[in-house]
Amino acid sequence: MIYFNVAGLSPFNQEVQREVTTTLEQFSRLLYSDEGIRYYRETLQRCRYALANWLGVQDENSVAFVPNATTASSLVLSRIAWKSEDQILTTTHENSTVLKEILALESRGVVVRTLDPSSPQELKIQIEGHLKCSQVRAIVMSHVSHIDGRIFPIAQLAKLARTHQAIIIIDGAQAVGHIPVSFQEWQPDAYFFPGHKWCGGPMGTGALILGKQFAEHTNLSCANKNELRQPLWTNFELGTQNIGLIAGLAKACLIKQQNGLKPDKLEHIREELLRKLSKIPQIKILEWNGAHSPGILSFTCLNKQTEAQVQSKSLNLSYKTFQLQNNHNQTGIRLSWSSNTPKTEVELFAKLLQSFR
Predict the structure, then answer these.
(1) 90, 167 in Cβ contact below 8 A?
(2) Does residue 285 sit in helix, strand or coil?
(3) Which of 297, 319, 317, 299 has the alpha carbon at shortest distance from 307?
(4) SS3 content of the chain, % helix, strand, coil (to 5)
(5) pLDDT score recorded for residue 115
(6) Residue 261 has what pLDDT?
(7) With the C-alpha atoms ordered 5, 299, 312, 341, is the resulting torsion angle positive or negative?
(8) Residue-wise pLDDT tens digits, 295-312
(9) b or e along 331-341 (b: 16 or more beta carbons within 10 Å of the residue's beta carbon)?
(10) Confidence band, pLDDT 50/70/90 cuts, at residue 347
(11) Angle 61-27-68 from CA coordinates, rounded to 5°
(12) DSSP state at residue 188
């Protein structure tokens, strides 16, 4: 099988699987003895530090472990004391499960405004306009679009949000492990990502990074003084954690840190596929007038005949399909790859594209 859906699930790394197994075997010999409890806590803190160190998070105690990005978004949104007529700014490029959590707030009187900009500058103008004229409580958006890989200028948007006392919540599912992400120079109120996509970690893992300002804007500020003195992660890690999976996530992130993200290799594959696709008149590349991530390329077929041809000739090809926002009858195709994607797979797909002309 030719695998071009790394943005959905990364191939499993044997080192990561061994880390999961070793950690669980060690804990199974201890369980909830005094030594076991110590091992459990030390493992979580070690993994918390590993993620914080990789991402440039100053305080590892602002990192909470979550089972996936959807759970993180639900937890974060539930901690905000929403008022009727509060507004949320989001985009047409949000993951459906996260968008579902956002839209659920409409039943509480929250107004959701969805933006569909064609460039970073247009997005900044739209958001600044809403911040000046509307009762915007929060901006909830992706760092990298799961649809076409566009990179949103979130560092600049975070500054805008802070100027207007709005909360900024970022879905980093398609960013962390894919493009450089560091919180040394900027800090959102909340930023979350799953472990099983670009990080190459196990399913059922993820992390939520919390800014110092978050408690000031949310229900956490209403907690008693003892709770406020606790690390922020204690408000988001619910119940017993699977330290085996979390150790696997930390191992995957360490591998990424040691090996590097290799954006040049990702971009080389993108340029090669883009060159081939651009020669096919029945295919349209999906992109905006701004920065794009190096490991994602999306396109659509301009007629049903070409679409059927693509489907019939790619039975051994794994990729993501989606419905276009402005035309639900038209299908988009997202290709995504890692730095470990074999050259032979790229060549085989490029050869397949030649038959579409």
Answers:
(1) no
(2) strand
(3) 299
(4) 45, 20, 35
(5) 97
(6) 95
(7) negative
(8) 999 999 888 777 777 777
(9) bbbbbbbbbeb
(10) confident
(11) 50
(12) -
User: What DSSP designation does 81 have?
Assistant: -
Phi, psi (5° rounding) for residue 198? -70, -20
How many angstroms separate the CA atoms of 221 and 234, rounded? 14
The owner of tokens 């990702």 is 266
Tokens standing for residue 341: 């994607």
Give the length of the chain: 357
Q: Please tell me the distance from the alpha carbon of residue 236 to that of residue 82, in angstroms, as a whole number.
A: 18
C-alpha dist (Å) from residue 98 to 72, 102, 103: 9, 6, 9
Angle at 313 (CA atoms; ends 288, 311), nearest 5 degrees: 55
Under 8 Å between Cβ of 295 and 320: no
Q: What distance in Å separates the CA atoms of residue 180 and residue 55, rounded to the nearest whole number?
A: 9
Type of residue numbered 20? V
CA atoms within 13 A on the CB side of 34: 0
In the chain, what is the greatest distance between 2 CA atoms, to the nearest angstrom? 67
Residues 6+ apart with CB under 8 A from 209: 55, 57, 62, 63, 64, 183, 188, 190, 191, 192
- Check if the beta carbon of residue 153 is closer than 8 Å to that of residue 120: yes
| pLDDT band (50, 70, 90) for residue 231 | confident
Residue with tokens 């032979």: 344
Residue 288 token pair: 């905006």
Three-state SS at 88: strand
Alpha-carbon span 284 to 298, nearest angstrom: 9
